[in-house]
Specification:
Distance between the termini: 20 Å
Structural class: mainly alpha
GO molecular function, one term: zinc ion transmembrane transporter activity
Number of domains: 1
Transmembrane segments: 6-24, 31-49, 61-82, 103-124, 130-151, 163-185, 191-211, 223-241
Shape: globular
Keywords: Cell membrane, Membrane, Transmembrane, Transmembrane helix, Zinc
GO cellular component, one term: plasma membrane
Main location: membrane
Radius of gyration: 17 Å
Number of helices: 8
């Protein structure tokens, strides 16, 4: 249980790191775009090589397919709602995000962080050792979220201390979610575990397709395709040694 909480904390810590940089440093857009592109590749690899492959192997094709579609659908529905509230750029790294609502960004981040962290706990249930590829993928994807959202919070008039406090709250929620994923879910329930894994994979694919990759290409140009490929290869290598 302690390991689940610790790795959830590690994965969520990049939100705070991104927030600190967003508050105190100016990150060039191209650098942020390359980070997002690499994170996109790693996330796609994690969803494919870890979550989906394991779900189909252990649970067949039906329930993982349903879980995948539900995850993608719920993320897109949530994304539409959050976008209307002003949180559409929460995973983007622009130095001047357009008219943010701080609360919408915060809620949207929690919606991303909780299911991602639950998967960390689930991965510990399955093998009693953490999935490095999932932790690294979540860590990388959280960085631009903390970075861009903190810039948005500043534009909304939030004080630096309050911004950092909010991200520390999300980081703690990530830790608690990983702990709950480990403590509550029955390790013998293959159907539940595989469906949750596929659900997370669907959400990840929908998220990177609609938020991270378009922004990375917009800011970094065609080279981000190669950087994303390197991220995917990294995920494959991590999975091989996992």
């Amino acid at each position: 249980m302690f390991s689940a909480a610790m790795w959830g904390l590690v994965a969520g810590s990049s939100l705070v790191i991104g927030a600190l940089l967003g508050i105190y440093k100016d990150i060039p857009n191209k650098v942020s775009a390359f980070i997002m592109a690499f994170g996109t590749g790693v996330l796609i690899g994690a969803a494919t090589f870890e979550l989906l492959s394991d779900a189909v192997r252990d649970g067949g094709i039906l329930y993982p397919s349903i879980g995948f579609l539900i995850g993608a659908t719920l993320f897109i529905v949530a994304e539409l709602i959050i976008s209307k509230k002003g949180g559409q750029d929460r995973k983007r790294s622009k130095e001047n995000p357009s008219s943010h609502s701080g609360l919408a960004i915060f809620i949207g981040t929690i919606m991303d962080a909780i299911p991602e962290s639950v998967i960390i706990g689930v991965s510990l249930l399955k093998s009693q050792s953490v999935s490095w590829v999932i932790v690294i993928a979540i860590f990388i994807s959280n960085f631009p979220e903390g970075l861009s959202s903190s810039i948005g919070f500043k534009k909304d008039g939030y004080k630096k201390g309050k911004i950092l406090f909010l991200w520390f709250v999300v980081m703690i929620l990530s830790s608690v979610s990983a702990l709950l994923g480990y403590a509550i879910i029955d390790p013998a329930s293959t159907l539940v575990i595989t469906t949750i894994g596929a659900f997370a994979a669907g959400g990840i694919f929908a998220m990177v397709s609609s938020t991270m990759l378009p922004e990375a290409f917009e800011e970094g140009g065609p080279i981000v395709g190669y950087v994303s490929a390197l991220g995917l290869l990294t995920a494959l290598i991590l999975t091989y040694f996992d």
